[in-house]
Amino acid sequence: MSARVFPSGSNFRPPLKKAVSKDSAHRLRQLRVQSLWASAHVFGIGAALMMAVGTAAGATFTDDNWTSLGSGLNNTVQALAVSGGDLYAGGKFTMAGSSTVNYVAKWNGTTWSALGSGVNGYVRALAVSGTNLYVGGDFTMAGVTTLNHIARWNGSTWSALGTGMTGYYVSALAVSGTSLYAGGSFSQAGFGTAHNVAQWNGSIWSPVGTGVNDTVYSLAVSGIIWGRTLVI
After folding, report:
1. Is the Cβ–Cβ distance between 176 and 228 less than 8 Å?
2. Where do the domains of the chain lie?
3. pLDDT digit string (tens) for 81-139?
4. CB-based contacts of 75-80 (< 8 A; 24+ apart in sequence)
5. What is the pLDDT of residues 69-87, one digit of tens each?
6. Closest CA to 96 of 124, 77, 122, 123
7. DSSP assignment, residue 68?
8. Going by C-beta distance under 8 Å and a sequence separation of 6 or more, which residues neighbour residue 109?
9. I need a surface site. Which of 11, 105, 132, 159 has the fewest CB within 10 A?
10. Which helix (H) or strand (E) holds 91?
11. Which CATH superfamily is domain 77-231 in?
12. Which residues of 131-151 are buried (b: 16+ CB within 10 A; e: fewer)?
């Protein structure tokens, strides 16, 4: 089975195939939304994957399939993650609906809410592991807690991951088992040298080999029989 990934953009239209019944189209529309929410936080191309799912099933796609989430946010969304029935969004916004949220917010299916006091700078990446939400970005603080570009939200409080990163920002996150991988533009993770990519094992940061020589914008983990592969 092969997958096709289509380019996204305002002028993009997926190829159309034969029409399907109204009931089938309704089920496919639901599948599209589930695919968008489930894939966007992992690959950063949720819309393209959503189009591919619909096309493979032989369904058409129109603007009628989109549903607003309340009154939305007041600036750009750069990352999404799903945990249970909750959708998390991170980006450049400070308001979600009528609530002050400071760059990261939760949608519970009905309303937007803040995650504590939020953070003090842009959010570029989100990842979920169990009941924890990991957040990466330009920020250095959440309230009075020093975070240095990466943080954990456990549903009630923010906490740091060691001393965080020394550099500009974290722009990619991926979870594999008990490990969290972070990529971005930084030269140090915790107290050790880490060139733009690092691993958090729950207690300390470590480099991933010798790292890479430029900014990391996306990460994905691929499970294989004898171990796992991190794709940058």
Report:
1. yes
2. 1-67, 77-231
3. 999 999 999 999 999 989 999 999 999 999 999 999 999 999 999 999 999 999 999 99
4. 78/122, 78/123, 78/124, 78/125, 79/41, 79/44, 79/123, 79/124, 79/125, 79/126, 80/37, 80/40, 80/41, 80/46, 80/126
5. 888 899 999 999 999 999 9
6. 77
7. -
8. 85, 86
9. 11
10. strand 86-91
11. Kelch-type beta propeller (2.120.10.80)
12. eebbbbbbbbbbeeeebbbbb
Q: Tokens 């009630």 label which residue? A: 156
Residue 123 corresponds to which tokens in the numbers above?
């959010």
Distance CA 138, CA 120 (A): 8
pTM of the model: 0.74
CA angle 29, 34, 36 (to 5 degrees): 95
CA distance 125 to 174: 9
DSSP state of 225: T
User: In the block, which residue shows the tokens 């939760």?
Assistant: 106
Instruction: Please give the helix or strand (H or E) that residue 88 lies within, else none.
Output: strand 86-91
Where would I find the beta strands (DSSP E) of 103-209? Answer: 104-107, 112-114, 123-129, 132-137, 141-142, 145-146, 150-153, 158-160, 165-176, 179-189, 192-193, 197-200, 205-207
How many residues make up the chain in this entry? 232
